[in-house]
Design a protein that fits this description.
Layout lengths: L4 H9 L1 H4 L2 E7 L6 E2 L7 H9 L5 E2 H11 L3 E4 L7 H15 L4 E5 L3 H18 L7 E2 L6 H10 L2 E4 L1 H8 L7 H5 L1 E6 L7 H20 L5 E5 L6 H9 L3 E4 L9 E6 L3 E3 L4 E2 L2 H14 L4 E5 L2 H14 L9 H4 E4 L5 H12 L5 E4 L14 E5 L5 H8 L9 E6 L4 H8 L2 H4 L13 H14 L13 H13 L3 E4 L2 E4 L18 E5 L5 E6 H7 L5 E4 L2 E9 L4 E6 L4 E20 L4 E21 L5 E6 L5 E12 L1 H9 L14 H11 L17 E4 L9 H4 L5 E4 L1 H10 L5 H12 L1 H4 L6 E9 L10 E8 L7 H7 L1 H14 L21 H10 L3
Parallel strand pairs: 4-9, 4-10, 5-7, 5-8, 6-7, 8-9, 11-18, 14-16, 14-17, 15-16, 17-18, 21-25
Antiparallel strand pairs: 1-11, 2-3, 12-13, 19-20, 21-22, 23-24, 24-25, 26-27, 27-28, 27-29, 29-33, 30-31, 32-33
Length: 843
């Protein structure tokens, strides 16, 4: 196997590469900290471990044994490839060997990881020469004919939260013997269980403990996590019990080079950088030529398919060598299980030199000792970044990880502030098990599984609150109350209709031209994902939405070959329902509370693939949707506006077109024949818009701006298109853009988990000073909220400081996608105004 150092030396000496290195961190090799194998371990394990080449344990593995033996719940938060699996396998298998009636349940976030860990357990048990434990995977892929045998014989079951939710807990009577003996529940990859998914899983675990308690079992929990800021807090919210945190890592580590590579700027004025995909492909070519076994991670299916095609097409196969199809492989969730197993084996055996994957390979699946990992863009969380980088270097040899940054603000922030990656993670994983919509669904499931008894709580939810919700379900005809007990009486099977991946219980089915169901989306997402005319990508194929029937919960799609994708155009308004906290930091008021968000999809853009050219704008007539959630907002004070206005740095006030504007507007419409001068659409009962060709704020007076030669009649759809190409980006809009893009760094969430809205004349507070003032609102994109807004309220000062740092460090002239957003082809970006506003707010 080739060494990484020759390539690293070449990269250091190449000016084109070195000039774009934002950070090059070298983590020196680390010797292992060993401990003796515990003498109290079962004799069969004491004899088996040396046969597996294990004569000592890492110090944290020995400490984990001690903690579990004491009866404490454990959260193990050590680095990738540090031997966490053995740390929990030893105490669990020891107990199973000693007590024939004992059972254990292992939960993994993916089916692939459960299958991989089954091999680990079988390997250890084969050395022990024990067949009575009979470990098995029980998930949606388990053949029906094997399920009864697993329920009856397997004492170690590996599954996932979804199967526990729909396939085990509702049928607990078939698992009675397993639940009676349940002594351990192991939850791996804890950091995955955050946001909506984590909130659902916390309720599934409430149901698991409730069913186990019914059979007289009180299992001990062992959790394993990647590095996050709050592993104990997250673990304790999931299992609702105190845990012992073990973070000291005794595993050996080879030298690791971590490079942050920021592609070169090709247009300094607009801040446009060389393509992320091109640069990733170029660096991967270097790794291939050097003979280094490499994994490339992309965030989206489309990204990995494009990189895969690029590498295979650019590769030249010498006679007698493996073809590019064999050497360069793809790996994502759309591949069939046997295809994924074959690719994993090819990587372990060294037959595949490079694999391009989504996060499906981020978790601890055994793919052998990769030498290099290339991350095509920031994965979305720091924990995922280290998980992906950790797939290279699973041994004592030197390894390499390269993060190739995109033009997004969060990528550029990390390129300019690499300490956020290399210092202790600032990310806090948040869950809210008591989110009413999520909780309601799981109380239905719990009532189906077992009647609720008088005075029964549900996890940490007190009994009086439980009774209040159960009585609501009685009124809905789903439960029957007899005395103080509550029984399920509906014909429905509640777990089947409750997805753990969404807060919404309603879904819209997607049908192709032959009436086959090819997928589904939750109802709130349907309005912007599968609206009429939308381009929908499924399993590498393009579809166009022909119709959307919200009442029938059905979208009709047809195969498409368009050279564009679609972006929905949305109009949003936010209304405060209750304010939970408020303060007056410099330059503004900050607050958080419950809000109502009303959103309407008014149209969509057609954008050419890769070139990002807007080809057209179409209007839509869809109903508005309302969501009650939680929000954090900052309202700009009048003093701040006055201060900036005096300096000519406030351009967020509404345009004052002057008293003659209505007459001028009518004359221009008459001149243009009441017809859109772009698409030719005639006015039909509603007046068209009149657009300033050169932005109004580019002039010193309304008289100059309103010269008829600078005005043109446009229909609303064409006006939106024109405004997107030529606009004056206000400092307020720039502030909203950078805050919305930067906040996920601190919340361990995706950008899509937060909504962002800037309003010029907000009415978010009853305080007369705040009414009608400009405001920026960030809100949870989940009904009832997960907790993001309260955390942002607490992080207010940090968020503004880091936003200022990001914008100030950006090399663009006046706004770009990496800082305050692009100003448009002929527009004015407002970067200077956004910086001044941040400074006025104390950043």
């Amino acid at each position: 196997m080739d060494d990484v150092h020759p390539l690293l030396s070449r990269w250091r000496s190449e000016p084109e590469f070195a000039a774009n290195v934002a950070a090059w961190q070298i983590f020196p090799a680390r010797s292992a900290q060993y401990a003796e194998i515990p003498s109290g371990l079962h004799s069969a394990l004491l004899h088996a471990l040396p046969n597996l080449g294990i004569c000592q344990l890492y110090s944290h593995q020995a400490r984990a044994w001690e903690i579990v033996q004491s009866g404490d719940h454990l959260i193990l938060a050590t680095s990738t490839a540090s031997g966490k699996t053995l740390a929990y396998n030893l105490p669990v298998i020891d107990r199973l060997l000693r007590q024939p009636e004992a059972r254990a349940l292992y939960l993994y976030p993916t089916k692939a990881l459960a299958q991989d860990q089954l091999d680990e357990a079988k390997n250890l048990l084969s050395a022990v020469e024990n067949t009575s434990i009979a470990p098995a995977v029980y998930d949606g892929d388990t053949p029906t004919g094997q399920r009864q045998a697993i329920r009856q014989r397997s004492r170690l079951v590996l599954s996932n939260p979804d199967m526990l939710h729909t396939g085990i807990l509702p049928h607990h009577t078939a698992w009675a013997e397993f639940f009676r003996g349940l002594q351990f529940v192991v939850i791996d990859e804890l950091h995955i269980y955050r946001g909506v998914f984590g909130s659902h899983v916390a309720n599934v675990l409430r149901r698991l403990r409730r069913v186990a308690r019914f059979y007289g079992a009180y299992p001990q929990f062992i959790l394993a996590s990647a590095t996050i800021a709050n592993p104990r807090e997250l673990a304790e919210k999931l299992v609702e019990a105190p845990l012992h945190l073990l973070e000291e890592d005794g595993a050996a580590r080879g030298e690791k080079h971590f490079i942050i590579y920021n592609p070169p700027i090709v247009d300094p004025d607009l801040g446009i950088r060389r393509s992320l995909l091109q640069e990733t492909g170029r660096l991967a070519g270097d790794l291939l030529r050097q003979g280094l076994q490499t994994i490339i991670f992309g965030r989206a299916r489309r990204t990995i398919e494009l990189i895969l095609a690029y590498l295979r097409q650019s590769g030249t196969d010498e006679p007698g060598e493996q073809s590019a199809l064999q050497r360069i492989r793809g790996y994502r969730s759309g591949y069939l299980p046997h295809q994924r197993r074959e690719i994993e084996e090819a990587l372990r055996q060294g037959e595949a030199q490079l694999v391009v994957a989504t996060s499906a390979l981020e978790l601890g699946i055994d793919i052998g000792g990769m030498q290099a990992a290339v991350l095509a863009g920031y994965p979305g969380t720091i924990a995922s970044t280290w998980q992906q980088a950790g797939r290279a270097g699973r041994g004592a040899d030197a390894s390499l990880a390269v993060l190739v940054t995109s033009a997004s603000p969060i990528d550029q922030f990390l390129a300019h502030n690499p300490q956020y990656l290399f210092a202790r993670s600032p990310e806090q994983a948040l869950v809210n098990p008591d989110n009413l919509l999520i909780l309601l669904g799981h109380l239905r499931c719990a009532a189906f599984e077992l009647p609720f008894q008088p005075g029964e709580a549900f996890g940490s939810l007190p009994a009086d609150r439980v009774v209040e919700i159960l009585r609501f379900l009685v009124d809905e005809g789903e439960l029957h109350q007899s005395g103080e007990r509550f029984f399920w009486m509906s014909d429905a099977y509640p777990a089947q209709g409750l997805s753990l991946r969404s807060a919404s219980t309603e879904t819209v089915l997607l049908h192709d031209e032959e009436g086959r169901t090819i997928g589904q989306v939750d109802r709130p997402s349907a309005l912007w994902m599968v609206h009429p005319g939308a381009i929908y990508l499924h399993d590498g194929r393009l579809f166009q939405v022909r119709s959307l029937d919200l009442e029938g919960k059905l979208a009709q799609l047809k195969a498409a070959t368009q050279d564009y994708y679609t972006e929905p155009l949305r109009e949003t308004s936010v209304e405060v329902i209750t304010m939970q906290a408020e303060a007056a930091p410099p330059g503004c008021w900050k607050a958080h509370g419950e809000v109502k968000v009303t959103t309407q999809v008014t149209g969509y853009r057609k954008v050419r693939w890769f070139a990002h050219e807007v080809l057209g704008v179409e209007s839509l007539d869809l109903p508005p949707s309302e969501m009650y959630t939680t929000g954090y907002w900052l309202t700009i004070s009048p003093d701040t506006i006055e201060h900036l206005d005096v300096q000519g740095l406030w351009n967020s006030s509404p345009n004052d077109y002057g008293p003659l504007w209505p007459a001028i507007r009518n004359r221009v419409r008459q001149r243009d024949g009441y017809r859109c001068q772009s698409c030719g659409a005639q006015e039909n009962g509603k007046a068209h818009d009149v657009h300033h060709k050169i932005p109004f704020r580019s002039f010193h007076s309304a008289q100059e701006a309103n010269n008829p030669a600078n005005l043109v009649t446009l229909c609303p759809a064409c006006h939106r298109k024109a405004e997107s190409a030529v606009r004056v980006r206000s400092g307020l809009a720039g502030l909203a853009y950078v805050l919305g893009n930067l906040a996920p760094l601190f919340l361990m969430c995706d950008s899509g988990d937060l909504g962002v809205h800037a309003e010029m004349q907000a009415r978010l507070s009853p305080d007369p000073q705040q009414i009608g003032q400009p405001a920026v609102i960030l809100y949870d994109q989940v009904p009832a909220g997960i907790g993001f807004s309260e955390r942002l309220y607490e992080l207010h000062a940090t968020l503004l400081t880091e936003a200022h740092r990001l914008v100030a460090a950006c090399g663009c002239q006046d706004g770009c996608p990496s800082c305050v957003g692009p100003g448009g082809e002929l527009g004015y970006g407002g970067k200077r105004e956004a910086l001044a506003l941040l400074e006025a707010l104390g950043a």
